[in-house]
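Appendix B, example 12.
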Amino acid sequence: MATAGVQDVAEPPPRRRSGPAGEERDGERGLRSLVGPGSSQVGPLAALRARDAARPTEEDLAEAEARVVVVRRNWVPREDLPRSGR
């Protein structure tokens, strides 16, 4: 029984993708490390950077205080409840 001959074929060089440059590329790389395939854990430095970047400023907190309305369904203030005669 004879084996088939192996033919060495030169593979074409990988194509470079044209994409964003500079900071945008670094940002995408960081995002890919967070949401890409593989481990879902990030390193301590990346976690600290994400925490600091997501922290609201004093202006954000003031705007939220002015704009956000909290609605509690079926909630009645105690002052409005009928008092029992006991």
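The helical segments are 23-35, 44-54, 58-67. The two ends are 104 Å apart (CA to CA).
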